[in-house]
Amino acid sequence: MTHLAKQALRAQRIETASWAYGNSGTRFKVFPQEGVPRDPYEKIADAATVHRFTGVAPTVALHIPWDRVADYAKLSDAAAELGIALGTINTNVFQDNDYKLGSVTNPDPAIRRKAIGHLLECVDILDQTGSRDLKLWFSDGTNYPGQDDVRVRQDRLAQALRETYDRLGAHQRMLLEYKLFEPAFYMTDVPDWGTAYLHCARLGDRAQVVIDTGHHAPGTNIEFIVAVLLQAGKLGGFDFNSRFYADDDLMVGAADPFQLFRIMHEIVLADALNANAGIAFMLDQCHNIEPKIPAVIRSVMNVQEATAKALLVDQPALRAAQDSGDVLEANAVLMDAFHTDVRPMLRELREDMGLDPDPMAAYRRSGYFEKVRAERADGQAAGWGA
Ligand SMILES: [Mn+2]
């Protein structure tokens, strides 16, 4: 069993996010950090560093316009030279003044056209980077009852999605993300997996739902959503992060490692861990008070640990207990796996892969931070990213 688990863990792929490497903050304050990247090329260098020490993070997601460059093929080549590839392209229709009342659902057709134009531009970027996935998240919604018509807004959304979907190449996918609330507080246009599913089902096979673990009400059974979407063939991927209260974007596995294990258990049960299953395992996090690169390394390790535990579930024993109605035994089989210390197995795996068994210590020893802090010293003075 351990051998099979190690094989699966060796093949696991976790995508990091470019924005996790730059300065970020809360609504109240950004605490700038030394050594943060000054441009998309430097974000890619940091992502490649995470891959160098973990061995399982070979792609980095981009966010447009934050990562806009003149030549995406050149950026792609730069990533390849560092041993990684460009991943999911994230769209942004939430930061322009025009979008105060919504982007693709805005009452003004000219603003809707502008928003759709951005989505189509991002498909052009997919073509240039060779990325597979276009990820959409809409901040659209209303703050007050009566502010706008729910069904009319759904129709506007459906039209925008259709136009974008029809522009996708044969090997490209659309990942639609939902979020319960914020920045809209009364009604959000894509608030839950059901709404996202409805739109994706109408669009076609290459429209898939993405689950951001921080985008639910407290107490939501996220692994149930995982199971249902897997069964429907509509789970496209995850934005992993941790939450205590709202969309906290903390390190995945920090707030609730048991939840992460339960999610990965559903993935393993459905044999959806391997790349052929088409599930994108992405990190969507911001590291506001902790050093960023080691925080991403820690997050990758947390996903690995939850996955390893899920792989150690004795599935025949679990099934036998379930079939015989043995509630306590079924629960015990699951908990045995969760309580297993998988860190020795992961250290062995890393040695097998030619990596340092302790990525955090290896990163610290590498001197990478000291190097970029010196190289990028002018960035903080220039206010880069802050
Ligand atoms: Mn997200």
UniProtKB/TrEMBL annotation:
Signal peptide: none annotated. Pfam families: RhaA. GO terms for biological process: L-lyxose metabolic process; rhamnose catabolic process. Keywords: Cytoplasm, Isomerase, Manganese, Metal-binding, Rhamnose metabolism. The keyword Metal-binding applies. InterPro entries: L-rhamnose_isomerase, Rhamnose_iso-rel, Rhamnose_isomerase, Xyl_isomerase-like_sf. One of its GO terms (molecular function) is L-rhamnose isomerase activity. This is L-rhamnose isomerase. It comes from Rhizocola hellebori. The lineage of its organism: Bacteria, Bacillati, Actinomycetota, Actinomycetes, Micromonosporales.
